[in-house]
Design a protein that fits this description.
Elements: H1 33-48, E1 55-57, E2 75-77, H2 90-101, H3 115-126
Parallel strand pairs: 1-2
């Protein structure tokens, strides 16, 4: 388990000053399927550009739910002040934190009443989502 401080890059930027990639579920994929697909694309991008990093966003405190980053990930990131967030809303709050601190969001939300769709709507309000296309 890494501390936030140990995850700073060589250039001194912390994860919230870099792009954190978070993917959302896609229809007809098993739970987390789109997350894995997006992570695989970032791992491939890392081969081309060594500045690219893949950081796993943790919605739950790492002490309560230890997580070893999957192969290809450069580390984990637990947003500040999440300790005070009730567990039932931790995933939503972590996702909103991410939207508030990234330049771009790539998401696919297929179910109109899903947390993913709510996050897309939130990103539209924050102007993080540059283009929304209904497929």
């Amino acid at each position: 388990m890494q501390s936030r401080k140990s995850q700073d890059s060589a250039d001194g930027r912390s994860p919230d000053e870099r792009c954190i990639v978070r993917a959302l579920p896609v229809q007809k994929m098993p739970h987390g399927g789109f997350d894995r697909l997006a992570a695989k694309a970032v791992v491939e991008a890392k081969k081309i550009d060594p500045e690219v990093t893949l950081v796993l966003l943790l919605p739950y405190h790492p002490e309560n739910r230890p997580m070893v980053p999957p192969k290809g990930f450069d580390g984990t990131y637990y947003p500040p002040d999440m300790e005070r967030v009730p567990r039932r809303v931790a995933l939503v709050r972590a996702n909103r934190y991410m939207v508030d601190h990234v330049d771009y969001l790539i998401a696919y939300a297929w179910h109109p009443a899903s947390n993913a769709q709510e996050l897309v709507e939130y990103a539209k309000l924050k102007k993080t989502l540059l283009k929304a296309t209904k497929i």
